[in-house]
UniProtKB/TrEMBL annotation:
<dbReference type="GO" id="GO:0016020">
    <property type="term" value="C:membrane"/>
</dbReference>
<keyword id="KW-0812">Transmembrane</keyword>
<keyword id="KW-1133">Transmembrane helix</keyword>
<feature type="transmembrane region" description="Helical">
    <location>
        <begin position="485"/>
        <end position="503"/>
    </location>
</feature>
<dbReference type="InterPro" id="IPR022703">
    <property type="entry name" value="DUF3533"/>
</dbReference>
<feature type="domain" description="DUF3533">
    <location>
        <begin position="110"/>
        <end position="496"/>
    </location>
</feature>
<protein>
    <recommendedName>
        <fullName>DUF3533 domain-containing protein</fullName>
    </recommendedName>
</protein>
<feature type="transmembrane region" description="Helical">
    <location>
        <begin position="361"/>
        <end position="384"/>
    </location>
</feature>
<feature type="region of interest" description="Disordered">
    <location>
        <begin position="1"/>
        <end position="20"/>
    </location>
</feature>
<feature type="transmembrane region" description="Helical">
    <location>
        <begin position="102"/>
        <end position="125"/>
    </location>
</feature>
<feature type="transmembrane region" description="Helical">
    <location>
        <begin position="396"/>
        <end position="416"/>
    </location>
</feature>
<keyword id="KW-0472">Membrane</keyword>
<dbReference type="Pfam" id="PF12051">
    <property type="entry name" value="DUF3533"/>
</dbReference>
<dbReference type="InterPro" id="IPR053001">
    <property type="entry name" value="MNNG_permease-like"/>
</dbReference>
<feature type="transmembrane region" description="Helical">
    <location>
        <begin position="318"/>
        <end position="340"/>
    </location>
</feature>
Length: 524
């Protein structure tokens, strides 16, 4: 067979290879398989439909039963009073855990308050305790210009000759000079210059108090007996025995403590003068006692010192700005922070960290500016004099000083309050009392009569502000004004420099708490 014939034929089918019978068998098998699959599918579908119908029927029956039960319960309980939370007695068994919490909290709070009382309050009491023990730090000046007198060949001792003996028994550190030694020490010549220099030494705060026995005291006493009137003059002891001090320098310590040794000196001097000095003087005079001028005798036996308050604490309204006012100014700065806190919290969510710091500082500084004006105006309303020192600008100096003081204490309060309110807001009151006490104890009472522990008060705002107020309102020495203003400015700078770091720390703490709270909420 040729190749052309082979190619023209059809390809061989399965019947050609397997035969016709086998092919029929395969076809039948395929038909049977297809029929079986269709039967199985229909059977499975019918079973599923039957199960679904059965389940739906069961579910509907259960739903009907539940509705019947609910209706029965509602009909049975419709007349019952619904349950409500009711109050009970403190000793109810249901409040056992709450009673335990109350007891523990009560013990903890009292422990904290007791700890505060035994650590902070003693600072104030300690500034007043056993002040006589520290009198060695108080410097006194004694100048005895009087000299002995020769009367008809008889030397009459000077009246102040026994004052050093009395001083030796008194507390305090005394600096005693006669005319010659005082002139050499301070470079003065005449008696008038000595008298003025004694006053200057007190004003310049080199000494707390001075006693000045002026020249010719004994001479005048003797002549009052020997020279008959009208040529003679009576002896007035207050013209020759002068005590110089400044009560405005320390209105709590000078009248009650600093003056006490000099008052004791006057008492002892009177006793010696009347019991020993005058009888001895009369025994040396040539005339009989009946020959003396009665008026001269009366004045001679009436010995008293003249107390010269060079800077008196007047009027009484000065107690306002120089005592309680400093505390009020401090507490006003706290009110400012508390009142503005809700607004600060709201603005913190709107402003960037840099601008929230600028905003807080601007609010505080501007607020203190006006608060200090209101505070100072109260003093003007009650007619405290703003003339004399600093001329017409005295009120402006007073106002700016108060503003600086409020910035110093207000900045400290705001920084500390920001931290306390972040961690333990209920304890903010402890800071307020602590800050007031450490300022009061080192400002209202003389450092000279305190333990050296209290010398930290020289760097506190209230002490320096009070020193400045005394200069402005009572015209005391200005020698320490530079130091006082410098310390207040240092407080303002320090508070302002710390404020951004505190805000950053507080903000980080709050964000950390918020993230922890969110994580805890997601876990639950």
């Amino acid at each position: 067979m040729s190749s052309d014939q082979l190619s023209a034929e059809e390809p061989p089918s399965i019947e050609n290879f397997m035969g016709t019978d086998i092919h029929d068998s395969v076809t039948v098998h395929r038909e049977l398989t297809r029929n079986n699959a269709e039967v199985l599918a229909r059977t499975f579908t019918d079973n599923i439909a039957e199960l679904t119908e059965d389940h739906s029927q069961v579910y509907s029956e259960e739903e009907e039963e539940r509705e019947k039960a609910a209706s029965i319960i509602e009909s049975k309980t419709s007349d019952l009073v619904p349950l409500e939370r009711t109050r009970t007695t403190l000793f109810s068994p249901h409040l056992k855990s709450e009673r335990k919490k109350i007891v523990l909290r009560f013990l903890w709070i009292n422990f904290v308050i007791a700890l505060f009382c035994f650590t902070v309050l003693p600072i104030f009491w300690g500034s007043l305790y056993d002040s006589t023990r520290y009198f060695h730090k108080v410097n006194y000046l004694a100048v005895i210009q009087d000299e002995p007198v020769n009367v008809r060949g008889v030397t009459v001792p000077a009246m102040g000759s026994f004052i050093p003996q009395i001083i030796a028994e008194l507390p305090g550190t005394w600096h005693i000079y006669n005319t010659t030694t005082f002139q050499d020490k301070f470079g003065v010549n005449s008696a008038g210059e000595i008298d003025q220099k004694v006053i200057d030494e007190i004003f310049d705060e080199h000494y707390w108090l001075a006693i000045n026995v002026k020249a010719n005291a004994t001479q005048t006493l003797v002549e009052s007996f020997l020279v008959p009137p009208p040529l003679g003059q009576v002896f007035n002891s207050s013209n020759f025995f002068e005590v110089v001090y400044e009560s405005a320098k320390d209105i709590t310590s000078v009248p009650s403590s600093i003056l006490a040794p000099v008052q004791a000196l006057e008492t002892y001097f009177k006793q010696i003068y009347n019991s020993r000095y005058l009888p001895g003087l009369f025994s040396q005079l040539p005339s009989n006692l009946s020959d003396y001028n009665p008026e001269a005798l009366s004045y001679a036996t009436s010995m008293s010192f003249h107390y010269f308050d060079y800077r008196p604490f007047t009027p009484r309204t000065l107690y306002g700005p120089l005592l309680g006012g400093c505390i009020y100014a401090l507490t006003i700065t706290i009110f400012q922070f508390l009142i503005f806190t809700p607004l600060h919290i709201k603005m913190a969510g709107l402003l960037s960290p840099k601008h929230i710091i600028l905003y807080r500082l601007a609010i505080a500084w501007c607020c203190f500016f006006f608060l200090s004006l209101f505070y100072c105006t109260v003093s003007a309303i009650f007619q405290i004099s703003f003339r004399g020192t600093f001329g017409r600008g005295k009120f402006m100096v007073y106002w700016m000083t108060t503003w600086l003081y409020m910035l110093a204490v207000g900045g400290a309060n705001e920084n500390v309050a920001s931290i306390i309110f972040t961690f333990c807001p209920p304890y903010f009151g402890f800071w307020v009392v602590f800050f007031v006490i450490i300022n009061m104890s080192t400002s209202f009472f003389s450092m000279a009569l305190n333990n050296y522990f209290f010398r930290f008060g020289y760097m506190l705002p209230m002490h320096n502000a009070l020193d400045l107020y005394r200069v402005i309102l009572a015209d005391l020495s200005r020698s320490h004004m530079g130091r006082n203003y410098g310390i207040l400015v240092a407080w303002v700078v320090l508070n302002t420099a710390l404020f951004p770091f505190i805000m950053k720390f507080v903000g980080a703490t709050i964000r950390k708490r918020a993230a922890a709270s969110k994580t805890s909420g997601a876990t639950h």
